[in-house]
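> tool_call: predict_assembly(chains=two)
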Amino acid sequence: MLRFSAVLSALLLGPVLALAQSAPDALRSRELVRMVRQDCGSCHGMRLTGGLGPALTREAMADFPLDSLVAVIFHGRPGTPMPPWKAMLSEDEARWIALRLQQGFPQEFPSGDPK
Amino acid sequence: MKRREWLATAASLSSLAALGGLAGCASAPLRGTGDLGAVIGRANGTLYIVDTSTRALLGAVEGLGDLSHASVVYSRDGLFAYVFGRDGALTRVNLLEQRITHRVMQAGNSIGGAISADGTLVAAQNYTPGGIKVFDARTLELLADVPAAYAPGKLSRVVGLVDLPGRRFAYSLFDADAIWVTDCSDPRHPVTQKFEGIGRQPYDALVTPNGRHYIAGLFGEDGLAMIDLWADQPTVRRILGGYGKGQQPLPVYKMPHLRGWAVAGRHAYLPAIGRHEVLVVDTESWAEVARIPVAGQPVFVMARPDGGQVWVNFSVPDYHRVQVIDTRNQAVIRTLEPGKAVLHMEFTPRGEAVWISSRDDNRVSVIDTRSMATLARLDVPAPSGIFFTSRAARMGF
């Protein structure tokens, strides 16, 4: 019984811990939110409603496979204007961004933590 | 008695006001708009109105929606700014009254616009739905809708819209590798001439200041597509073809912008895609003249109105810098760091000063183009595009 619980909690907590280990700190999170809103925003719109690049709203991203989304951010999409962002991001940070896009991307807050 | 006195006073006050109205505006002194301009506050949907003589902020007009990538054209009299918002809004602002006079939601996603040479038509270029729409410049009534339909059920995103003489507009179809020229001399019945197969993925375009050459930059290949609009039978030809010479391009984090400001004297200065270079082409022979190494990937490559200098800003991560090229010897003579995230530059009408927006420093800097001294700094929240009314007098602006 005890063993079963341990396995269960490992199963449940595993992904959470993995995410926590790779999660950017508060300062870097703010930078990433700003980067997505402002720099990705030059093609996808500051409100992420699209432009030369497609919309990145929660509705648009929800059905996109997470790993593919991470790959597009990190490696780009050859043949389209989507560049690889790996010179400016780690793969974990690309995953952090991808997850948040699927949840509805946070707004930028000029001061304090993004909520 | 008291009431009668009050009425008499009120009557003479209102007749004074009427006289004042006849004589001009009693409250605000008359002034022109030739030294005015607008700065886009991209984060707060606000248009900031500026005076380039006093280098001061005159006022702010709020409520313009999503202004990321917003741009402005001006009425011929320089009184009205037409603001094209990302969210598809087209807004007409009276600069002197500092208020919105007309506003329409004309598309789902818009990227800019143009005004006809006679000042009667304003055209918007749209991503969603892909195409252009043409409006009455006084009322913003829709006159023409030209969907960029290039295949059954497919609309292309439109870029590079410019005005041409004779109530015509030229623009490029990013998804269709095409350039279209729409004649709106009868705006309710527009006639479109189509040039196909111009090169892969045109991303923006310009018309030279004389209105003769329309040049579209290509994202999908090295080179630009050019049309001589003065030819009896205009055709598309390639210029600067293969400028990358097979080298792997760098990631392009931001699309460059093209406008008639590229032309300085007989040369055009153009951003290379995916390279830290400015390309120089002779506008008589269309042969390559030089490649100028610069500090990053160019976004705006803008000639000072006299053509003596060309100023360049860059995409992320090099957008804290601005470089100045001397056009006599095609060399970078100065690297400036006016602030974080430089998004745009605009010269005063005769180019003695340049205004530069630094988004992340919430600042617009005014810089003397001879001494390079900073003449003024204006506090503007997240400034992006800067547009002066002198654009009203220039073709392709």
